[in-house]
Amino acid sequence: MIGLGTYSFFWQHSELSPQRLTLSDMLQLSSDEGVEVFQICDYAQVEDLSTSGLRELKATADDLGIALELGTRGVASAHLDTYLSMATALGATTVRSMINTATEKPTLAEAQAQLEGALPAWADAGVDLALETYEQISSTDLVSLVEAVAHPNLGICLDPANSVAALENPRDVIDRTAPYVKNVHSKDFAFTRRGGWVGFTLEGVPLGTGLLDYDYLLEVVRPEERGINQIIEHWLPLGESIEDTIALENTWNTSNLQYLRSK
After folding, report:
1. Coiled-coil intervals in this record (predicted)?
2. CB under 8 Å to 120, separation ≥6 — which residues?
3. Distance from the CA of 259 to the CA of which of 37, 132, 184, 204 falls in 20 to 30 A?
4. Nearest to 43 by CA among 3, 80, 73, 75
5. Cα–Cα distance between 145 and 215 in angstroms, integer?
6. SS3 for 115?
7. Are 232 and 187 a contacting pair, CB within 8 Å?
8. Is the dihedral of CA 122, 127, 128, 132 positive or negative?
């Protein structure tokens, strides 16, 4: 399925927004766009919900015909246990995570031990954990970790744009991770010259207008055939005003959905 998530409404749920969106608001806007899956990713407020609050959120999503996914950072056992419980309450069958957090940077061996201890419970619950490709850990190391753990409920959240910052070619990342992909973050990007032509800025653009060969990703990963959800994200910088930025964010949501649906 093609979906939206909290990163699709990044500016609209930020503290800068004059009418800050709640999760229910984002679910309703997603439903208005005909979306069937929504990923609550790196959204700290969801951790404050009680079990009954999580169930109420699931009921809202169910009423709108939207399946939920979760996203967090870290692989510490206690943290993964918490998110598994949350995923169970929300009916989410996929959770995206990253190896590192702001305060924890385990070695690959430490991450492997943590994952091996946690994943049997994930299998019992029928929930997949997808580790995202990003610049702090090479895609080669990430694939090696997934292969070392060798658990059917562990895979990769593919976001080729992130790895560009580590000078990894998006096609190489796609090829390397394809057998293990369980989730896709869909965003395009481009380089533009900075003022005075001193260096470049790497930032987001609407899907199909930048440097990411999305047709190649679809050809190699085959997300629809494999039942892998594609979640739209943005690297949308703040414009001249928050109002203009929010308007553009909504425009990108609509255009990116149209782009993916045309494939």
Report:
1. none
2. none
3. 132
4. 73
5. 27
6. helix
7. yes
8. negative
Q: Where are the alpha helices (DSSP H) in the chain?
A: 23-32, 51-64, 77-90, 108-125, 139-149, 160-163, 170-177, 214-221, 223-226, 242-261
Tokens representing residue 254 in the block:
């609509």
68 token code pair: 């939920």
Task: Output the DSSP codes for 189-254.
Answer: EEEEEPGGG-SEEEEEE-TTSSS--HHHHHHHH-HHHHT-EEEE-------SSHHHHHHHHHHHHH
**How many Å apart are CA 119 and CA 129, to the nearest integer?**
8
Provide the Cα torsion 88, 89, 92, 94; round to 10°.
-40
For residues 189 and 162, is the Cβ–Cβ distance under 8 A? no
pLDDT, residue 196, reads 78
pTM above 0.90, yes or no: yes
Strands 229-232 and 188-193: unpaired
CA distance 91 to 84: 10
d(CA 246, CA 21): 11
Q: How many residues does the structure list for the chain?
A: 263
Contact yes or no for 38/30 (Cβ under 8 A): yes
Do residues 2 and 34 touch, judged by C-beta distance below 8 A? Answer: no
Tokens of 108: 């690959």
Number of domains in the chain: 1
Q: Which domain holds residue 84?
A: 2-261
CA distance 126 to 88: 9
Over the chain (263 residues), the average pLDDT of each successive run of 10 is: 98 97 98 98 96 97 98 97 98 98 96 98 98 97 98 98 97 98 98 87 96 98 98 96 98 98 97
